[in-house]
Amino acid sequence: MRKTLRLGVMGGTFDPIHFGHLVAADEALVQFNLDRVVFMPTGQPVRKTHRHVSSAEDRYLMTVIATASNPDFEVSRMEIDRPGDTYTVDTMTALRAQYGAGAELFFITGADAVREILTWKDADRFIGLCTFIAATRPGYDTGLSAASAVALPPAVEYMEVPALAISSSDIRERVRTRRPVRYLLPEAVASYIDKNGLYGEPGADI
Ligand code: NAP
After folding, report:
1. Which atom of ligand 1 lies nearest, measured to the CA of 39?
2. Rounded to an integer, what distance in angstroms lies between the CA atom of residue 206 and that of residue 202?
3. Would the CB of 168 count as within 6 Å of ligand 1?
4. Is any atom of ligand 1 closer than 6 Å to the C-beta of 130?
5. How far from chain centre, in Å, is Cα 79?
6. Which end of the chain is more exposed for a tag (fewer CB within 10 A), N or C?
7. Helix 187-195 to helix 56-67 angle, to the nearest 10 degrees?
């Protein structure tokens, strides 16, 4: 009998990608017995109107650089090549069509993003397409015992990742204020940021 493919889809803006994301993907790979994890940089994030987001190409390239050495990680251009706002439902529908019933899909992302899933486009349809893996920072309150639990989508698996104490917003602020980032993200990504002058403008809205 053919084995069901267990495919992790790591969704994020990755502006920039850091060790927290990489550790979370690796943890999901092992904890959920995934065959591989496809990193899916968001093309045009729908809810990021409050700050400048680096170009899709810069975020894609940083993700490729960061994952290059791991044979279990891949990076997809699916969202960055799709015109218009990025909706996860479109991505999961396309992946479901590509892989058919022979694949089990796991959408991995930050727990704060997962909290809002019910408000995303076509949430009802999206929720039926995959299992959600919500990566949490240490001490994160999932709200599971509180009244808010009823507002969470059904198939959510929580996964605590201590390395998620690292955050992209902190890295952007550190670059802007010329503080060290060396041990927070792969060296080659730090070099890419430096070479391309990302996050560096004085007074930039991070
Ligand atoms: P976000 O709101 O920028 O991030 C929320 C929190 O989750 C942040 O603390 C972030 O930390 C963390 N996070 C984000 N991606 C992560 C990942 N892959 N692993 C671990 N932690 C992660 O989230 P976002 O990047 O905009 O969106 C996350 C995903 O949800 C993307 O794939 C996006 O396309 C999708 N999304 C879809 C819709 C929709 O379809 N309507 C709406 C919103 C989001 P860092 O800043 O350090 O990453």
Report:
1. 18
2. 10
3. yes
4. no
5. 12
6. N
7. 150
Q: Is residue 168 a contact partner of residue 15, using CB atoms and an 8 Å limit?
A: yes
User: Quick one: DSSP state of residue 110?
Assistant: E
Give the residue, out of 9, 10, 13, with the most ligand 1 atoms within 8 A of its beta carbon, to mutate for a pocket test: 13
Nearest CA residue ID for atom 41, ligand 1: 120
CA of 11 to the centre of ligand 1 (A): 7
Q: Measure the CA angle with vertex 52, ends 158 and 181; round to 5°.
A: 65
pTM: 0.93
Q: What is the pLDDT of residue 146?
A: 47
Distances in Å between the Cα of 202 and the Cα atoms of 16, 68, 128, 177, 199 are 18, 32, 45, 8, 9
